Amino acid sequence: MRLPEPRGAVSAEIIEALLAGGAPVVTGPADGPEPWLDEDLQISLWMLYELHYRGFDGVDPSLEWDVDLLRLRASLETRFLDGVRAAVSVPAAGVVPGLTELTSADSGPSMSRYLQRSATLDQFREFVVHRSIYHLKEADPHSWGIPRLSGRAKAALVEIQSDEYGGGRPERMHSALFRTTMDRLGLDTRYGAYIDVVSAPTLATSNLMSLFGLHRRWLGALLGHLAAFEMTSSIPNRRYGNALRRLGGDAAATRFYDEHVTADAVHEQIAAHDLCGGYVDEHPGSAPDVLFGAAVGLFLDDQAAGWLLARWEQGLPAVA
């Protein structure tokens, strides 16, 4: 994958460092807007995280563990975490009741209803472009949790991830199904092809998963994030599939969404009770971390959806 275009001083320094094989980089971002709206911060984090996934053309793989880059990443993560901590509240409840409270109370803008009822084909394509930043590597960030778990929680995560990866059938992997949806919509299916046109909030939703996944300290938050994702997925995916059918999509185009309607209805019970419940049973006192991960994931999803809907309401495209 090619490196993205810079969106500010920090990302420009990172690109220069990566191409030079580890040149000095700046120590951190200047003060800016809320971190999920900060284009420079989010593209910078995304680049630094991608070193742990597939890397970039012309970039030495050994830079994945470059001390200066890791130090910079830590400073960016601190700003990101400080911002989202101030933006969300966590229920004072047990883990399963808390997850139910968070996912039931989620009152952000309904992207799925808008797409089902009102979106044009061009708007649906833009929605898919933004979602491609995560869905073309769907499940990968949460898989970082597998070696850090044991017992009931580990078995539950492996069960969920096995479905996400197609049960051993490459053509059934959810990332492959999404690639088919993109192809049917005439979009570029290459990994990272649209990184230069998506918004900071879209990047933030992906970066949050990588932040939680790459830090053992945030394992509970990673599990809570996945649980909230699964518990709020089935109904919206039914609407996404119906929206695409309304716009002329065939069965192959909608299969990604149709698959999630049934899969996530099962996954939500496993994620809440066996994954998160099992983890908290084994690690008493970890419920606040689990619920924090869920709360932040829901908040950032709302921010990303709100950004897209605001563009469309103004009659503007949602890609740069």
Automatic annotation (TrEMBL):
Gene3D superfamilies: Heme oxygenase-like (1.20.910.10)
Domain of life, source organism: Bacteria
Pfam families xrefs: Haem_oxygenas_2 (PF14518)
Name of the molecule in the record: Iron-containing redox enzyme family protein
